[in-house]
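fwd from M.: "can u put these together and see what the complex looks like"

so here's what she sent:
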Amino acid sequence: MRVVILLAFLLPILALAQVSLGAVHIPMRSVIAALIQPEGDFLATIVRQQRLPRVGVAIFVGACLGVSGLILQKVMQNVLVSPSTLGINAGATLAVVLSVFFLGLDGRSLFLPGLLGGIAAMALTLMAARLIAGQGDRRLDVVLAGSMVGILCSSASTFVMTLDSDAFGTMIGWLVGDIGNFDHLMLPMVALPAGAALAGAFLFSRHLDVMVTGDDQAALLGVDVRRVQALAVGIAVVLAVSAVVVVGPIGFLGLVVPHLVKLALGETGRATLLAAMLAGPCILMLADIAARVAVAPRVLPVGIVMGLAGGVLFLGMVLSMTRRGRA
Amino acid sequence: MLRYALAFLPLPLAAAEVTDHAGFAVTVPDAPQRVVSLHDWVASVMAAELDVPLAGSSARVTDDGDFYIRSGFELFGLTVDNTPLASVHGQTDPERVASLNPDLIIGNSGDNLQQREQLASIAPVLMMDPENGMPPLEIYRDFADWTGRRDVFDAKLAAFQAQADRMAQGRDLSGCTYLPLLVNGRDGTLTIASDYGGVSLAMDALGAVPAEATALIPDGVARANVSAEIAGSLTAGVLILTHLQSRDETAETTRAEFEQVVPGFLDHLSGQGTVILNLPRERVYPTSFKGAAEVLAALPVGFCG
Amino acid sequence: MIVRTGAISFTVSGRFLLMFPALTLLVLALAWVALGAGLTETSAAERLAALRGEGMLAELRLPRILVALLGGAMTAASGMILQIVSRNGLADPGLLGLSQGSVVAILLGGVVFGLGPQALVWAGLAGALAVSLLVLGLGRGMMAGGGIVMVGLAVNIVLGAVTEIVMTSGDAARFARLAVWSRGTLSGVSNGDVALIAVWAAGCLPVLALLGRSLGPLALGHDTARAVGIDTRWLLPVLVMLAACLSAPVVAVCGPVSFLGLIAGYVARRLVGDAPQEVLATGMLLGAGVLLLADTAGRALLPPFVIPAGLMTSFAGVLVFLLAIAAERRLNR
């Protein structure tokens, strides 16, 4: 529980830092002034109308991806799976690119195609993983299959883009995953499904905890393994797609967060869900701050920063996992 | 078989060597009769305006899966029915270009540089770079020289200049600044442009000058992406906004996007006396006298007053 | 079966004797079809003329076909060498990060430093070598069990992020362009590229043939190899360098083509068994055939669209791969 409280303190501090940093640096004092005073100057407008909503988006996306990753890792009993390594992100992205181009859809209506894409990609990954099986560690098969599906989906996305690249002029940031200043306008569209999925995660957390003991044990304890698995995967996909529709495919948050949470709290209990909900936003905000400071005055898309940092961490996890496996 | 043989016929005797925007020195026919344009909304538009015989043009794919020559259609009625399809945007099949039997190919350095060697085996290839930081009029003049249409170009330029002079009514407009500005409603950035096809053609002919903010644009390119947070420092006598009509956008779409990204910005500028134009990008982004004339026509009486 | 030609004798399996000529014929037939496939109808006489280097086809179709054949074979060979070195059937220059290393080096060299095509190959080679040393170094001692593939995937992810930094530094058109190349396409291939690839193939393939004999013992394990007197201390680095030299020029010309090595190795083992030299020869034929098929289908199936070969291989390849495994499952049941 201490970890949760610590995170709960860390979150507002990082949020303030995220508001303060940007193309125009706003001193912390002005930030706080803008938050307290009802009327303000130009800076106050920037703080309230642009940067604060960014923080809101970061919290939403971080929570979605963190919890999604945690659930996936629990139910699949595999520390290497996450919305990005399973191909869910890439599948949802392809579906969004297709519907933007061919159906002319925008914001409001992208969730459903995204969800279909995410589910299809996930199903393809699981199918492929079953077929590759037998080349070694079972947990690695899923990730390999996911990377195949991911490459396939992103190749297809880029092909569609070439048909009229001008139509995607405003979407480059989204395509590699970025928190845009106005992504918050998308939040109302996905708040309902994401909220329902989060509630579901808390409601069924007991059932999910039982899965950690392994499929056989869970069945012995009277859990309908298949139904719980389907439910959990459904919740995780809805959460991941909600995040993708808003900010694009931001990878590895869903991989890193559960790992950290597990180190601090273990795997079971509602506190782990809460911790994932808080740790996700914290890490995403850290990455976003890094994206703005690293090569200032240029700004990197936060998805790229997450890719860099997440890739290094993934490498570390693989190394420690295989080393331990050998010992 | 015949068309392959045709491609190897000797070039017309009168031929000149020119240097294209990618730095290649190319010998081109004096008066090409079958020109293939691989840049729909720049080269194809110029060709249409200067009566260059087009053997084909690249086109884009619309959401219905139809082919569409952006700007060439809006300004001069080019369709794949009256101008054969030379390539789908970004996916040039050299065989299709060869089947049109061109005697000159105008490529664009962005999309076709990789395929230059293949295309050069079909006909002389000139690479065009419409956003290399050169004034649009210079790029247009290059195109006229490449295609042997300098006389047509000079005549059209003179007529257009006369029209601009009438419009300026002898006023000295060197203190009048103009700024083409694009907005990205997703990530909240603005794109400022120094050279913007028909817009620059029109404003330069009037004697107006690019706004101060264009100093932010690096050399060798025509635009720069900036954070919307610097909007407070942008000033101009004439602000030009655009929208993509072919993607179902309207003037209102662009205005709403500005209102969202930089609330109150447009009203603030209007209050300072800035003239704000909101034009279809298909008509004014390409460099053409026809599009430039529409920019002139859109200017209110007494602008920059 | 033992084949004797003068002083040289070697063992060849019956399946290989059957499969290799059959596949060779298949690939040749495919090349003949590819030479005729495209926008315009092509007579046999025109195709023969193209083979002599005459006519438009010799400029437009022939280079693509030759690069597809050579590049496919080289990428497949690179993958299968890595499979033997890492003792993991899933290794592939794409999966281990070699291709992505080349991509990053080439993008940085071309976009940031403005290098020419010849220099870019060397940049790509340096990138591939650096990554292969990194991956094999980190993955040392965890060759089996797929650990090294995971290390490669992780390195791939980091390098992919670097690629995206370069890709997003321009407008949408540039993003789309670089994105297409970074997924593999043969659309820009010209006669100059054929020469470039051929030079590297001519340099690498004899080395591969020379080292071929030692691959057998190596595949049985590094200890086995040492036991029959093979010095693995120099053989392994040389093989890795060879794998990098085989894949880098292909990446420089057509971008990384995913899964080619993986598919070729996998299918070849199913066709001819486990003898490394036979698998290598068969797999190279398969790699050549698959890339040629992907590129030809991409340019001829849906005119006027040109579907990049990288998209076709990852699509068709993944499909073929899955079908092959599924079929095998059914047979074994």
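replying to her w this: Chain B touches chain A through 27 residues (CB under 8 Å).
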